[in-house]
Amino acid sequence: MEEQPLFSDLSEAERKALEELMPDEMGEIMSSGIKRRHFLKLFAVTGTSLLAANLLGIEQLMARSIPIEEQPPVLIENGINVSFQVNGSTQKLMVDSRMTLLDTLRERLGLTGSKKGCDHGQCGACTVIVDDKRVLSCLTLAATCEDKKVTTIEGLATGNELHPMQTSFIKHDGFQCGYCTPGQICSAVALMGEAKNGDASYVTANVREKKKAVELSNEEIRERMSGNICRCGAYPNIVSAIREVHGDKAVAQVWQFAEGTI
Amino acid sequence: MRPFKYSNASETAAAINAVVVNPTARFLGGGTNLVDLMKEDVMRPSELVNVTRLKFSAVEKKENGLSIGGTATNAVTANHELVRENYPLLSMAILAGASAQIRNMATNAGNLNQRTRCTYFYDVNMPCNKREPGSGCGALHGVNKNHAILGWSEKCVATYPSDMAVALAALNAVVHVEGSDSTKRSIPFSDFHRLPGDHPEIDNTLKHGEFITSIDLPANRLAEKSYYLKIRERSSYAFALVSVAAALETSGNRIKDVRIALGGVAHKPWRARIAEQWLTGKEATEANFKAAALAELKNAKPLEQNKYKVGMAAKAIVRALEGAMQGGNYGAMEADLTTTN
Ligand SMILES: Cc1cc2nc3c(=O)[nH]c(=O)nc-3n(C[C@H](O)[C@H](O)[C@H](O)COP(=O)(O)OP(=O)(O)OC[C@H]3O[C@@H](n4cnc5c(N)ncnc54)[C@H](O)[C@@H]3O)c2cc1C
Ligand code: SF4
Ligand code: FES
Ligand code: FES
């Protein structure tokens, strides 16, 4: 395999910031790669979480788009011209009628944050927000997206400022492998809107009660997030992360690092 | 997935015509069922006509009830104020199905047209009369724990998976469709889906190219006492093993009107007419609910692996009726279950 320069996706400024932060460990990082404790140290020291996340390679959490050269597919049958917004920028492209939104995001637009878990609507890893609603991009044909506004995990942060839901997932350790995380976060962000809107769920005590913004119990959060499966079983922490953002008040972090590990 | 022609319909007559003239064309709603089945190579349309931009997404009052649009999403329908207030049974049933993401995509018309989840149907290497008429039914003597206990035939023992449709059956909904040359017709819900008989490849009585414009819900006095109970292998995001839509109108404790429909037991939503007749005019008591449930399920013919469904369905009917009597209040119902069980 060809050697990749370390942190090739970091900007000059970010690389410099890294060196200033951890001059003594830079050599070790270079030779042994990034370890979780470096990540955490960066976190503790800086709060520049976007940088930290890049370093760790848990890009799942707040995935940024990587610049890729668009590879036009070899053969497009039944090509459809679509124009839609992705994370605020207009995209115009020709897609095969069979192309899903998920494959379009990942393979044509370089937005690999959205994940393909099952490709059949059964796991939620591919969840994105289309016109303010959470949907499954694996069952959405790209051709149906004309004029729509798509938000993916890459579009949630504002510059280097994470979306509160991303910050909360970090604080509450709402993931292990991170594969389901972009879907979980997009889903949770849209859920906040549904709750404000007073939407009901199957466990809502009385669906006939007039709609007003609803406060979500843990049971409600679990039911409403059931479309996002987590193989690692990070559910309790995911619920805590969502509760913190939803409730607008701090929820205690239930984990901490063993002494001497950072 | 096989190649197919695609268009975004902007005009109803043209959309209908496009499907009418091509026997292998299909309407595309949210795509949550059709796209999945196309990926599995179970369905192989040569052309898709996306109908979600046509103007059939309204939920509106009608003279004698409510009309819900064929292309309205399940999520919008379940959360519409008029549906929540007047047809809570429908809201509960829709919200019991799939996930928030899927309900945001799924249309009401697509929901009624979704196909069975029988695993043999999904696996193109297996025999299945529904997918390939004449190839045999893999489930009849195979893995059939999730299959029908009522109304099946030797040709097919599949169940119909929609939750929404179970509520619509109980609510005496009427499906409005439009065909070629703008011909319109209305289909009473009990005539919409069908039993398999000798032709399991036909799920319902819609003709090729007929487009569902709306579904009417007649006015009723059942809103205060209705409940949708769904039993499944995990508590959310799973299809029903058995489900029950129950609704009552009582005067004192006497039953004036009662509706019971079962999901997960047959090739169509199963209206429990025997139980309903048994209960009408009687007192709303647990003993009567039990007797009615047993009367209905006396005719059940379970398969090798799904005998459990008979007892489960009987108990579910009783529980759902009790839930309805408590005002369809999920909280109260759950609290009651945890204290009595
Ligand atoms: C993982 C998963 C879990 C699910 N769990 C549940 C569950 O628990 N309970 C439940 O009830 N459902 C469940 N579903 C099914 C889901 O509800 C259906 O897939 C959905 O309702 C179909 O609607 P759609 O608009 O996406 O249909 P599409 O997939 O677009 O279309 C389905 C069929 O309807 C036809 N059609 C679409 N619109 C019209 C129209 N206007 N007129 C005539 N024909 C039309 C299409 O041609 C196609 O044949 C689940 C689905 C998935 C993927
Ligand atoms: S039960 Fe019906 S759908 Fe399932 S294998 Fe038999 S014929 Fe096919
Ligand atoms: S990849 Fe879309 S739901 Fe699993
Ligand atoms: S964190 Fe691994 S699947 Fe959820």
Automatic annotation (TrEMBL), chain A:
Name recorded for this polypeptide: 2Fe-2S iron-sulfur cluster binding domain-containing protein
Domain of life: Bacteria
InterPro entries from the UniProt entry: 2Fe-2S-bd, 2Fe-2S-bd_dom_sf, 2Fe-2S_ferredoxin-like_sf, 2Fe-2S_ferredoxin-type, 2Fe2S_fd_BS, Aldehyde_Oxdr_Iron-Sulfur, Beta-grasp_dom_sf
Keywords: 2Fe-2S, Iron, Iron-sulfur, Metal-binding, Oxidoreductase
Molecular-function annotations in GO: 2 iron, 2 sulfur cluster binding; metal ion binding; oxidoreductase activity, acting on the aldehyde or oxo group of donors
Pfam families with a match to the protein in the record: Fer2, Fer2_2
PROSITE patterns in alphabetical order: 2FE2S_FER_1, 2FE2S_FER_2
Residues of the 2Fe-2S ferredoxin-type domain: 80-156
TrEMBL record, chain B:
Keywords per UniProt: FAD, Flavoprotein
Gene3D superfamilies: 3.30.465.10, CO dehydrogenase flavoprotein, C-terminal domain (3.30.390.50), Uridine Diphospho-n-acetylenolpyruvylglucosamine Reductase, domain 2 (3.30.43.10)
GO molecular function, one term: oxidoreductase activity
The UniProt record lists the keyword Phosphoprotein: no
Protein name (Swiss-Prot/TrEMBL): Xanthine dehydrogenase family protein subunit M
Positions of the FAD-binding PCMH-type domain: 1-222
SUPFAM superfamilies: CO dehydrogenase flavoprotein C-terminal domain-like, FAD-binding/transporter-associated domain-like
Parts of the chain that traverse the membrane: none
Pfam families xref list: CO_deh_flav_C, FAD_binding_5
